[in-house]
Amino acid sequence: MESEKQREMSNKASESFPMNAGDGPNSYTLNSSYQRGGLNIVKEMIDEAISEKLDIHVLSTSELFSIADLGCSTGPNTFTVVQNIIDAVKLKFQSHCIEFQVFFNDHVSNDFNTLFKLLPSSRTYFAGGQPGSFHGRLFPKASLHFVHSSYALHWLSVVPNEVVNESSPAYNKGRIHYGNAAKEVIDAYSAQFAKDFEAFLQARAQELVPGGLMALLLPGIPDDTPPSQSPFVRLFELMGLSLADMTRMRLVSEAQLDSFNLPVYNASLEELKALIGKNGRFSIERMEPVFRYAPTAETCTIHLRAGGMERVFSEYFGSEIMDEFFDRFAKKVAESSILADLTEQNSAELFVLLQRKSSTS
């Protein structure tokens, strides 16, 4: 049976675990250059989409263009993305006098104070925060023209109930993720992602104007690749091994290890395509893997730590062991072949460009 702690963790999941706040040495603000590199790669794809796919008829009579960045964190990447979108729209509709409003969204526990403090003083748009989960509605119907989200959709709304239930065939004892787990565990994660992604698409279908665009960038795996062969997923396995070491040192109890699972899922393009098709409200304008350079073990560790992982682990295991945990994880990454194995064949960040269909269905 589930313990009270298990139920609490499953219900909270990523809702209460934002990126590291502030601007200190372990903050997301100072440790998000890897994510920025991915955004730089897809910038041209977004520019092309706006140039070729966006129609002037999406604008209202007031010529107000609304943009939402979902999972914005604290900056500075979100400001770069937003400005790139605005520049591309201005270039597309240069004969029109367009005003821009931008909504920065993340969970209610996100450090919005740091976000607003870092807002560019030279910005040419009206800015506002919109706290809440993007797995549900955030904006009025047909109020957005462009939606962007990067490095956020792999976070699940909840840990799958089955993997923390001792009476379930999918109980994931001794593991914190699904990489080398039983098929029942993988299926439970996949089903939760499908549920979450459908909720995300349903909400955005309501909020985007017909003809509006949505650009998504998320960590994934290539089609027909077992999770155990994905370097991204294998990194989480090393986190589990680090915790197992600390269990033997009695810094972490076996009960804690057995009841903890990461609320993260790496989908494939095939999975995304099927879910988008099932939803039926968007046309796929572009969908492809994006190859990235392999970071060093140190860079990999600090970016994962700042990018939400520290908050997840410290909430469950305590903040006092976080330095020990991430030191062990960094050593395991350095000793492994994971980063060297990052190739176009076995790793993927997935770029997806969708357009809201004109149908009101």
TrEMBL record:
- What InterPro entries is this protein classified in? MeTrfase_7, MeTrfase_capping, SAM-dependent_MTases_sf
Region Disordered, as annotated, extends over 1-24
Instruction: Spell out the SUPFAM superfamilies in the cross-references.
Output: S-adenosyl-L-methionine-dependent methyltransferases
Q: Where is the composition biased (Basic and acidic residues)?
A: 1-10
**PANTHER family registered for this protein in UniProt:** S-ADENOSYL-L-METHIONINE:CARBOXYL METHYLTRANSFERASE FAMILY PROTEIN
Q: Which Gene3D superfamilies match?
A: Methyltransferase, alpha-helical capping domain, Vaccinia Virus protein VP39
Keyword annotations for this protein, in alphabetical order, are:
Magnesium, Metal-binding
Instruction: Kindly list the GO molecular function terms attached to this UniProt entry.
Output: metal ion binding; methyltransferase activity
The protein in question is named S-adenosylmethionine-dependent methyltransferase
